[in-house]
Write a structure and sequence with these properties.
hpI Integrase, Chain A, about 50% helix, three-stranded antiparallel β-sheet, about 10% strand, 8 strands, mainly alpha
């Protein structure tokens, strides 16, 4: 059942700004419990104001003129409210105020910045990131509908309370963890910051907001777990392909998108006379140059004549990330791996088990992974330190 809008107008004197016995006259517009204050650009005598009737006391010509003006203001505000309802537009106190002041045109809403961002991100953001933004948009519209009983809001209405209310709303969504909540907030923040830079907003409502992420250790395969997958052969072609792609990533550090984008043009002869991969990371466009280990090179050779590869001129047959991760769950079960196996774990495994654990300097690993900051790579070094600590603890228990 649709809840009707509630509307009221209260005239009052702003006593905090009183001077010489007079105070500024304001109108407080309230719609569905949300307030907006409107300065009427007049100062009235505090002694002559009837706070109960919201009118001036007395019968003087000035009193009659002011009270007539207040009735006129109320009538105009109510007409704006009725007009918005008739046109089936969103009804907010700020919008009624804008209609009264005659500046409703040229004001930008949440939908405006979302549409603008959607139009411009198609050429700059990868498909996976675009999908993440669409998910955030969906939650935003759901929040507006459930908590504000509208489908849109003016950007000028956004404030710190809106942000923390949206955060609280997200935390009540099923199976949504803290870091996922923060990701949605950060995407909203990027869109609002874009609006602020384009001067669609006079202030940044996020200026006092601080995103708080929970630090999580990167999951990776141990040497034994990786060996179990390498040693397993599958009679089902799709599982064998997924296994090969995963192992290839374990020995190159390339992400799903980077592996799928590889072509013969990415294979180059290095200064050492051996084959290298020269590419750019899909996510950041940072160039990467990776010398091919024999295990990775053998997998490339295996798919040289695969019909799917030759048709699309890629090194490997293409498959969606969703299907790939689904099939990896089957591989994990068969190989007795209890971890939640995803393709990105292969990249973590390359950083930890394959490189850092075998003495490859962190600066080299950072280059191979295409990290723009070495601090990003140091996360893996901390994981290795934890492993060393655990191993020493087991040794302590043994002796």
């Amino acid at each position: 059942m649709k809840t009707p809008n509630t509307f009221s107008v209260l005239f009052w004197l702003k006593l905090a700004s009183a001077k010489n016995g007079k105070a500024p006259l304001y109108a407080r517009i309230t719609v569905n419990g949300k307030r907006s204050e409107l300065s009427l650009k007049r100062k009235l005598s505090i002694a002559d104001w009837d706070a109960n009737k919201n009118r001036l006391k007395g019968l003087s010509d000035e009193t009659k003129c002011v009270n007539s003006y207040l009735r006129q203001v109320y009538s105009q505000l109510f007409e704006s409210y009725q007009k918005l309802k008739r046109e089936k537009k969103m009804v907010t106190s700020n919008l009624i105020k804008a209609h009264f002041l005659g500046d409703e045109d040229g004001r930008h809403s949440l939908t405006d910045i979302i549409n603008y961002h959607n139009d411009h991100m198609k050429s700059t953001l990868r498909l996976g990131t675009q999908k993440n933004y669409y998910t955030t948009h969906r939650y935003l519209f759901l929040f507006l509908k459930e908590k504000h009983r509208t489908t849109n809001m003016y950007l000028s209405e956004l404030n710190y309370k809106f942000i923390i209310d949206f955060e609280r709303f997200l935390r009540h969504q099923k199976s949504m963890g803290n870091n996922t909540v923060m990701k949605h907030i950060e995407r909203l923040r990027k869109m609002v910051s874009l609006a602020y830079r384009m001067e669609w907003l006079d202030r940044d409502p996020f200026i006092k907001f601080e995103a708080k992420y929970e630090k999580k250790e990167r999951t990776f395969l141990t040497k034994e777990e990786l060996q179990r997958i390498e040693d397993k052969s599958f009679t089902i072609p799709r599982l064998q392909l997924i296994k090969d792609l995963f192992v290839f990533s374990c020995y190159t550090g390339l992400s799903y998108g980077d592996v799928m984008n590889l072509t013969l043009g990415n294979l180059c002869m290095g200064m050492d006379g051996k084959q290298w991969i020269h590419s750019k990371r899909e996510k950041t466009s940072v160039p990467v140059k990776i010398p091919l280990l024999s295990k990775a090179s053998n997998i490339i050779k295996k798919y040289e004549v695969h019909p799917n590869s030759t048709d699309k001129q890629t090194l490997f047959p293409t498959i969606s990330n969703q299907k790939l991760n689904s099939y990896l769950k089957e591989i994990a079960d068969v190989c007795r791996i209890k971890k939640n196996l995803t393709f990105h774990i292969a990249r973590h495994t390359f950083a930890t088990t394959v490189t850092l654990s075998n003495g490859v300097p962190i600066e080299t690993v950072s280059k191979l992974l295409g990290h723009s900051k070495i601090t990003t790579t140091q996360i893996y070094a901390k994981v290795i330190e934890r492993k060393v600590s655990d191993d020493m603890q087991r040794l302590e228990e043994c002796i």
